[in-house]
Amino acid sequence: MSGDVSDEALALMDIAALAPLIAGSEVSPVDVMQSQLARIEALNPDLNAYVSLYPEAALAAAKEAEAEIAAGRYRGPLHGIPMAVKDLFQVAGMERTCGSRILAEGVANSDATSVARLREAGAIMLGLLSLHEFAFGPTGINPIVGTARNPWNTDRVCGGSSSGSGCATAAHLAMATLGSDTGGSIRIPAALCGVVGLKQTYGLASRAGIYPLCESLDHGGPLARTVRDAALVLDAIAGVDEADPSTAGARVADYTALLGQPLEGLRIGVPRDFFFDRLHPDVEAAVQAALVVLDGLGAVVEEVVLPFTREASQGWNVMAMGEAHTVHGTHLQNNAADLSPDVNQRLRLGEGLSATDYILARQTQARVRREMAGVLERTPILAMPTAVIPSVPIDTGEIMVGDKSVIGWKVLGKLTRLACFTGQPAISIPCGFTQDGLPIGLQLLGPWFEEPLLLQVADAYEQATEWHQRRPPLAV
Prior knowledge:
single chain, alpha/beta, Amidase signature (AS) enzymes, two-stranded antiparallel sheet, 16% strand
């Protein structure tokens, strides 16, 4: 027994609740780690969240954390906290595969910058998490290393590409995780697994040591069970890094500063066109109910028009496919047969693009950013669904919406690409469940480097509802 918390229950606690107990030596990081590893041992064989796990190294780090804290060297709220990262991040002592049979890097001898910063804050790395191969797909289906299964229904996908990050966070197989987001790969699994997923402003957190997909669109950020926990992780990883020039203009803030503050008078824009087209009826009902909650919290919820949305989606396609093909052109030439069929197919979409196509897309990106800035001057927060459908079955990848069969990989990223194209921060938070018990996500977008405001709104909604308190029906 650790203080007033049973060892079995430690893995079920949120970071913000557990941290004061660790700080006061009421709970040992070793007991926390043992509880976490026991849960992983019991559940991961069925969920497949982890590609690789390093329990001995994690326990050794927990003992070091225990000794540091006992000696009065407490580092902060992540000290002694078990975390895991997508198998796209370089982690010293671990072997990255990117969910592919092609990559053969061997064991890494250094950390990605974000991982190094988490370690500096005292977090402990458990292992590497499953993903859509090379992070290039929104479902998380991976025939090579296996597919992470949704903790709410193990016949369903977790969403991609950070599938293992969504799964591990929802199933309490890590207290928080890192994923990457190029077109929605943090927010989609967060929505489909019922957790919080934050894509911070482009350039706020370093991508150094994260295997690239699209340089102009890639982000690495947190998935957590609460908004406050996500803020604590962002506190640790945000900031300038000489190894990533995109961070040169990073503006760091206290990401917990506005949590708990009222929303009275804050204008929240709702773009009905495009973002509310052909939604699954349960998704539409849940998001509409969430907007009513925000209105009840004192926000001014009003409709806005984003006339550039379709152009932005087309521009994202050109940039993403062109840059991904540049990264993986050699793989297509030499190892095409070893790629997942869907990844092979998607990578080839970049083959026919011209320099003119790419330059025009970048020009569209600059214009859309200017126009988005104008919208945000009046309504600094935008609210919409994270995904048009809930999770799809792993075996078919399709779901019925009314009398129509909808293919998951074609639509799951539809609503998340805009924030990657503009580079503005976006977050997905749980806002309900389908009649079949599958999670639904509410997506919020905010102004560049205004994460404290975005987190304030997300936290206010979270605290006014009970969705984040629900747990998947998993038996240990």
